């Protein structure tokens, strides 16, 4: 059984891409092309996958966009379809809860290949995820939103900032070589600092595209031994113009452009 990061390394090499395509099918933004479908989010994702998979190192659905019964059906279909194209799926769910609840949350790893988790409740809350040797677990360290600084940049008695402490803890949790960190591309200085602290951990770097993050910093600091993911969601999936007849082609083009842009720095 190969680890998530071994699978990801193989995928990155095969498609020559570290692009994570975010599948966040906001119902208010779906194009008319899919609105009559039984499950519009699934119809949308399927067509996005058809046009982007050759540029995708991974798909990253955010659980927030599937939190209803049709949503979970759409998510299941999407994951199976992405797997059919040989693309791993990272569920951005930011889980973190007490033990028995965390064990239930972790069962979603039977469906997806990796997940994001919130370290706020501490090590025991993450054990059910960390113990899944074949799955990737990305711990939030410095998120891409400005307000992330409210807690994550707090200075501790040790002189470290909280996000640095989280990065060091995550390193100590990496017994199964399945831990990565989430660090936003909108925080290039923190990206660099965290990379120095944990040279061996791959990062998921969101914040490219719609959030205006730094592509060069994302590549220079996000990858560990060439492995890591740089995510764009809205910048790819909503690149098209509804009714143009080329809606999904535009997503494919945006994914390809991002791949090329990032590859300049790899
Ligand atoms: O720090 C974080 C952690 C997660 N995200 C998620 O990534 C995507 C970004 O979407 P864009 O449309 O490319 O802005 C979305 O699912 C966020 O919830 C993040 O942005 N920052």
From TrEMBL:
Pathway: Pyrimidine metabolism; UMP biosynthesis via de novo pathway; UMP from orotate: step 2/2. InterPro entries: Aldolase_TIM (IPR013785), OMPdecase_AS (IPR018089), OMPdecase_type-2 (IPR011995), OMPdeCOase_dom (IPR001754), RibuloseP-bd_barrel (IPR011060). It catalyses: orotidine 5'-phosphate + H(+) = UMP + CO2. Residues 18-248 form the Orotidine 5'-phosphate decarboxylase domain. GO terms for biological process: 'de novo' UMP biosynthetic process. One of its GO terms (molecular function) is orotidine-5'-phosphate decarboxylase activity. It is an enzyme of class 4 (lyase). Its EC number is 4.1.1.23. It comes from the Archaea. Signal peptide: none annotated. Gene3D superfamilies: Aldolase class I. Keywords: Decarboxylase, Lyase, Pyrimidine biosynthesis. PROSITE patterns: OMPDECASE (PS00156). The active site is at residue 94. SUPFAM superfamilies: Ribulose-phoshate binding barrel. PANTHER family: OROTIDINE 5'-PHOSPHATE DECARBOXYLASE (PTHR43375). HAMAP family: OMPdecase_type2 (MF_01215). Belongs to the OMP decarboxylase family. Type 2 subfamily. This is Orotidine 5'-phosphate decarboxylase. It comes from Halovenus rubra. The gene is pyrF.
